[in-house]
Structure formats: structure tokens, C-alpha cells
Design brief:
This protein is mainly α and 401 residues long. The chain is built from 18 helices and four strands.
Length: 401
């Protein structure tokens, strides 16, 4: 009885976090700093809990991988909003092209360099275990990212983002979803507030699952923008450069939902699932999101034209590609340990405010060299990396048609 009472209180409090911002939003109330950060921030927090509940319930009907893919897609909605806004505006004002790529590269590096490492650190702190073991089914996400990362090195070479990139990257995302949907659905044990709902009749449970996803997506949609703007105001008061604000502070706000989801799961000792959420978010951003930027740009511009990248943008994409390669080499053996997490975090945190072109290229090369060294030195990593291709889901996909 006590657990049910606590579950009900937590359930009500979570929805209250969301409803308070919906009231502010629909009443068009004017709020000043710091409430313009706190109130939408609470809404993002509440929606993040609700989307995890929706994913938990969805796993009773579909595979964990597909449920997490939906979770990641909803959690990353704020990032899509920000990036597509910049890409759309760039179609009319080329100066905004830099902001679209700045936000995209910043969010990707934040997700991998900080997010993946944070999950490992939290799991170590809570359990004392220094290694996270991934499920074999997570090869789907990892292989999708490997293919997208290899292709991403082509973008800085040609210096543009075009509709051809859209076709390739969105195609990788579609194949990823297709194969995730085919993965086996295992029986899931529900914990916490959702135990009560899981015991309800199936048709009611399915309705509530859909409601949780739709409601949380809408709350994130209406609160992420004001939350990001509030953080930007706070950042400007600290005297930070605008490009840095767009690259690091805005993604910190837009990445908040998936970070919160991952933290909750890690603290509940579901480290593999926690890391899977962030890896799936990385798939979303590194394929579908980047692929949609040239589409938004061309529609806004009113003609088929590539987005031209300047030297700074090329450098940022190259560093992001290098970081992705290193992270995926580490995950290819389906393990992620505290030493690997520490290396990714150290490389990430030391590059935050780099201005020098030479140093940015040094980081990009360092990521690539470290990836190659790990593949050369570690036989098991090398064999598993190769296995990703020999047993790829692309091959399975071609056999399905």
C-alpha cells in the first residue's frame, strides 16, 4: 500500500511539473529571469520521466530496441527544433548556416563525450562496477552509427551539406528503424509507478502508452524553446561568445530530456538501457537530423542548393566525426568501461572553448589515431568491429526484400 501511495504522489508531481508550464504557455503569461529557466526546465524534467514510462509500457508490446528508438526520437525533439530553425533561416540568411552546424556538432559531441561517460560514472558510483555490458541486440545501433560516421568524413572533404547527404543519412536511419522493429520482443518486468498501469487491461494500457508519448512530446515541444532561450539569456550575462552559446549552451538545454532519461535509468542500475538511450539518440542526430538540414535549407531557399560550409564548420564536423569513430570503436566489443569513459570525457572537456584552427585539427587527428591504435592493439575489439560488417543488418535487410 505504501509503495502504491508513493507511486501515486510521484506520478501526480511529475504531471504537475508539465501542467504548470502548459498553463503559462496557454495563458501567454510573461515571466522574468530566473523563472523563465526554472519553469520550462521543470516541464522538460517532468516530460522526461513520462517518456521513460511510455517506453517501459511500450516494451510490453514491442521490442526494447524499437521502444527506445521512439523514446530517443521524442527526447531529441528539442534538438530537431533548434537545428531545423537555424537551417530554415539559413536558406534566407546564409549567416545562419554556421549556427546550424555549430548546434549540430555541439549536441553530438556533448551526447557522446559527456553523456556516455556520465552513464558509466553514475553506474560505477551506484554499483561499484567499472564496466557496462551491452546486449547483442545493440549491434543494430552501433553498426548504423559506424556506417554514418564513415560517411560523415566525406562531408568536410567536399565542404557542403546537400540533398545527396540527406538521401544517404536518412536511408541509414530508415534501415535502422526497419531492423530495430524486427528485433525480438522479450518479456519485460515493470518497476515503479508504472506497475499499477501495467496491471490494467491491455487496451487501456496501450491507450495510456500512446498518451504518454504524445503528451510528453507536446510538452517538450512547447517548453524546450523557452528553456533554451532562458539559458541563452543566462549565458549572455556571463559574457560568453554567441557561437559558443549556440554550440554548447543551447545543446545543453535541448539535450536535457535524453540526459535526464539516461540519468534516471543509470541510477536505477539499468546501465545498458541507459547507454542504449543515448546511443539511439546519437543515431537520430547523426543520421536523420543531419539529413533533414539540407531539406529544410532547400525548401526555405526555394531551390535545390547545397549548404556551403566555411573553414570553422568543416573543422567542427571533422572533430565530431573523429569523436564518433573513437566512441564506436570502444563500443564495438559490446563493453564500455570506466577507463574508456574517462578518456572520452577528458578529450571532450578540454576542447570546449578551443579557438585555434591548428588545435581543432590536432583533436580530430588524435581521435582518429586513437581509434586505429585500439583496433591494432586489441584483437577482440578488432574482431568485433569486423563482425559488425560481416553480420550486418544491411545484409539481413537485403534478404528481407
Amino acid at each position: 500500500m505504501k509503495n502504491k501511495k508513493l507511486s501515486f504522489i510521484w506520478f501526480a508531481l511529475t504531471f504537475l511539473f508539465c501542467l504548470q508550464w502548459l498553463f503559462v504557455h496557454f495563458s501567454h503569461s510573461h515571466i522574468n529571469y530566473p523563472l523563465n529557466v526554472i519553469l520550462p526546465g521543470l516541464a522538460v524534467l517532468g516530460a522526461s520521466f513520462i517518456v521513460t514510462w511510455g517506453a517501459e509500457l511500450a516494451e510490453l508490446e514491442i521490442s526494447q530496441g524499437l521502444a527506445i528508438a521512439f523514446l530517443a526520437l521524442i527526447a531529441v525533439l528539442p534538438e530537431y527544433m533548434v537545428d531545423l530553425y537555424f537551417a530554415w533561416t539559413a536558406g534566407k540568411n546564409p549567416a545562419y548556416t554556421a549556427y546550424a552546424t555549430a548546434n549540430m556538432t555541439g549536441s553530438n559531441r556533448l551526447l557522446l563525450g559527456f553523456g556516455w561517460s556520465l552513464v558509466c560514472f553514475l553506474f560505477w558510483w551506484r554499483s561499484g562496477k567499472k564496466e557496462i555490458l551491452l546486449d547483442k541486440s545493440q549491434r543494430i545501433e552501433i553498426f548504423a552509427l559506424i556506417v554514418a560516421t564513415i560517411y560523415s568524413f566525406i562531408i568536410p572533404m567536399k565542404g557542403t551539406l546537400s540533398l545527396l547527404d540527406s538521401i544517404v543519412l536518412v536511408g541509414i536511419f530508415v534501415l535502422y528503424i526497419f531492423n530495430t522493429a524486427k528485433s525480438h520482443s522479450e518479456e519485460k518486468e515493470i518497476e515503479g509507478p508504472m506497475e499499477i498501469i501495467a496491471a490494467l487491461p491491455r487496451n487501456i494500457r496501450i491507450f495510456l502508452t500512446v498518451f504518454f508519448f504524445v503528451f510528453s512530446a507536446y510538452v517538450i515541444f512547447v517548453s524546450a524553446g523557452p528553456f533554451a532561450e532562458g539559458l541563452l539569456v543566462a549565458g549572455e550575462r556571463l559574457g560568453l561568445e554567441k557561437f559558443i552559446l549556440v554550440q554548447w549552451l543551447a545543446p545543453l538545454a535541448s539535450e536535457a530530456p535524453e540526459f535526464i532519461v539516461a540519468i534516471i535509468l543509470a541510477l536505477r542500475l539499468h546501465a545498458s538501457t541507459s547507454l542504449r538511450v543515448l546511443v539511439s539518440s546519437k543515431v537520430n542526430q547523426w543520421t536523420l537530423l543531419i539529413g533533414l538540414l539540407p531539406v529544410a535549407y532547400c525548401i526555405s531557399k526555394g531551390q535545390i542548393s547545397p549548404m556551403h560550409l566555411d573553414a570553422r564548420q568543416i573543422e567542427e564536423i571533422l572533430i565530431t566525426s573523429g569523436q564518433s569513430l573513437l566512441g564506436l570503436v570502444m563500443l564495438s566489443n559490446l563493453k564500455f568501461n570506466i577507463k574508456e569513459a574517462s578518456l572520452l570525457f577528458a578529450l571532450f572537456i578540454t576542447q570546449l572553448f578551443i579557438i585555434s584552427t591548428e588545435v581543432r585539427y590536432i583533436y580530430a587527428v588524435a581521435y582518429i589515431i586513437l581509434s586505429l591504435l585500439i583496433l591494432i592493439i586489441s584483437r577482440s575489439t578488432r574482431e568485433n568491429f569486423i563482425k559488425m560488417f560481416t553480420e550486418s543488418w544491411f545484409k539481413k535487410s537485403s534478404q528481407s526484400f
